[in-house]
Amino acid sequence: MPTSNHQDWIRTASEIDRFERIEAFFNDHAYEPHRHDTYAIGRTLSGVQSFHYQGVMQHSQQGMTMVLHPDEKHDGESGTQDGFRYRMVYIEPAKIQPILKGKPLPFIQHGISTDPRLFKATNTFLQSIENHMEVLEEEDALYDLAMALNEISVQPLSQRLSFDYRAAEQAREFIHAVSERNISLDDLEKSIGRDRWSLSRDFRLLFGTSPHRYLTMRRLEKVKINLIKGASLVAAATDAGFYDQSHMTRHFKQAFGLSPAHWKKINHLP
Questions:
Q1: What keywords sit in the KW lines (predicted)?
Q2: Does residue 83 share a domain with residue 18?
Q3: Do 23 and 119 reside in the same domain of the chain?
Q4: Average pLDDT over every residue of 153-178
Q5: Residues 111, 67: contact at Cβ < 8 Å?
Q6: In a domain, 184, yes or no
Q7: Is 227 found in the same domain as 133?
């Protein structure tokens, strides 16, 4: 197991194909500004985890819960000279929507919460990544998390908007089915039978990002899995549907704040 004596490391739980859970240590600067289309939910185990969020520097310490909203830009660094250690789980909005029954996504103000309900609801996902999680355990934890997020969320104005959840979900399924193709909003419109701009608006509202960003992130998830399995950067890029390695690398850094080569170097399976 990696130690925390001034050497950065990331460890990824083995169930990365279901939920990506990590534990990591960073001594100083961790991530460049980036954004991903999942909720990033975590807690700091030691030290102070500092990050810019919606233009304000936030500081996560033990006892708090971080909830970074999909597509919100953020970075990461140590708030002290001792570095910081944390656990994080990345939750796709699409996994929460069947529980919320098509409501706009919950939003946690400032990206940090001290609410005990949320802290308790994240215990299962943020347990040691060495602990294997059974499918039913994950599903129960997902329900508890969705309910807690919904209870303490700042309700956005978008709650008043009308939207078509069924069409947005059909578009999401279509993207998964053709993730290696170069598709357009016109393809989505013809497949789903809903005006492309209304569909794009509803997709952003319900899944936290645009259709194109959603497609790109699914490809990047496949890249991560392939890199962990030992694939080269070139092979991981082409297998996931990117034009070439440089195309993949550009999107990887924008999504995760690290280059894929550096991410692969410091990542360890338990």
A1: DNA-binding, Transcription, Transcription regulation
A2: yes
A3: yes
A4: 80
A5: yes
A6: yes
A7: no
178 with 126, same domain: the answer is no
Taking the C-alpha atoms of residue 247 and residue 68, their distance in angstroms, rounded to an integer, is 26
My answer on whether 20 and 102 are in the same domain is yes
Question: How many domains would you assign to the chain?
Answer: 3
Same domain for 39 and 131, yes or no, is: yes
pTM > 0.90 = no
Q: What is the pLDDT of residues 17-76, one digit of tens each?
A: 688 999 999 998 889 999 989 999 999 999 999 999 999 999 999 999 999 999 999 999
pLDDT at 160 (0 to 100): 52
Whether residue 203 is found in the same domain as residue 253? no
Domain that holds residue 217: 213-268
Which pair of tokens denotes residue 127?
Answer: 């347990």
Q: Among candidates 207, 253, 202, which has minimal Cα distance to 35?
A: 253
Measured CA to CA, the distance from residue 106 to residue 108 in angstroms comes to 7
Q: Which among 13, 41, 46, 8 is positioned nearest to 24, based on CA atoms?
A: 8
Domain-embedded: residue 236: yes
pLDDT per residue as tens digits for the range 125-143 = 999 998 888 888 999 999 9
